[in-house]
Amino acid sequence: MRRALVLAGLVVALCATAARAEPRCFGAAARDAVDPCHNPRLRFSVVPKPSDAPITPSAPCSLIPARTGPRVCAFGLPATRARVSFALVGDSHAVHWRAALAEVARRKRWRGVSMDQTQCMFSRAVSALREPLRADCIRWNGEVPRWLDEHPEVHTLFVSQQRGRNVVLPPGGTQLETKIKGYIDAWNALPASVERIYVIRDVPYETIHTPACVRRAMARRSKPPGSACARSRRAALRPDPAVLAARRLASPRVRVIDLTRYMCGPRRCFPVVGGVLVHKDVGHLTRQFSTTLGRYLLRAL
Questions:
Q1: Which of 263, 214, 226 is nearest to 42 (CA)?
Q2: Where are the alpha helices (DSSP H) in the chain?
Q3: CA of 102: how far to CAs of 96, 98, 105, 233, in Å?
Q4: Deepest in the core among 2, 163, 234, 301, taking most CB within 10 A?
Q5: Distance between start and end Cα atoms, the chain
Q6: Angle CA(178)–CA(183)–CA(187) in degrees, nearest 5?
Q7: Residues forming a β-bridge with 257
Q8: Is residue 34 part of a domain?
Q9: Is the peptide bond before 132 cis (omega within 30 degrees of 0)?
């Protein structure tokens, strides 16, 4: 444990150094269609290394002590200095967007609060989890709207979660329809103080073999790791039921943010973009790549 903490500290320090000396076209900027950018010096660069990515902690967030309710932490500006307060809600696939939203908060002078629950969608559908995780998820889904009702200063909600998680089916129900209804019911139950809900589409997924492929490409230096280890878009990117729910609801209150173009082309999705490793594992973004998505998340707003 001590060794892991030391390594994590070193990775954070290296990331901070890299951020200060960020090269041109770094990360998502390499796929910016509005301002096209290409830096040949990044062809074989990979930051962080595949071996370091899994131990890199998520973007920092300061715990807000409370005796009851969901676990809440804050990032961005202090409440006394922030112009706007927003919330990020979902499972670990929401947490990896915190680095991008921290960039948004910094640029817009906003304050964010993060509420996440392991393996738990923000939905009225019941996640098909073993106990006690299922009961914890049901309880958390009740606590989040109550917390938002008690904090009317939070006007904007960002939601994201793993697209493929199964739910408990009602008689005659299907996974897709039950998920869509569960999301719509959860959003409709939010207090009126939540004026805007942004549904961030889940990311493309890698395979368990991708890190080894990237390491081999880094060693051989015959073909850039991003293209050498790319995966077909059809296999990497599946429909997100939350996005389908937002489109079906067709409410001006609910908007979709889709940043897929910064990770995928028309036919392939890339594990390395602009010299930055996109995933820390099969389905979670690295903190570094998420950070580079911040300006594009802001543009989408």
A1: 226
A2: 2-20, 92-95, 98-108, 133-150, 175-188, 210-220, 225-228, 233-236, 241-249, 287-292, 294-300
A3: 11, 6, 5, 28
A4: 163
A5: 40
A6: 150
A7: 200
A8: no
A9: yes
Q: pLDDT digits over 20-79, tens only?
A: 578 999 999 999 999 999 999 999 999 999 999 999 999 999 999 988 899 999 999 888
- Domain CATH number, residue 92: 3.40.50.1110
How many residues in the chain? 301
Find the domain containing 96 and state its range. Answer: 82-202+240-267+281-301
The DSSP code for 123 is S
Helix (H, G, I), strand (E, B) or coil at 154: strand
Give me the residue label for tokens 């869509």. 180
Query: pLDDT over 90 for what percent of the chain?
Result: 89
Please list the ranges in the chain whose pLDDT falls under 50: 1-19
Opening angle at CA 140, ends 138 and 143, nearest 5? 115
- The answer to whether position 24 is within a domain reads no
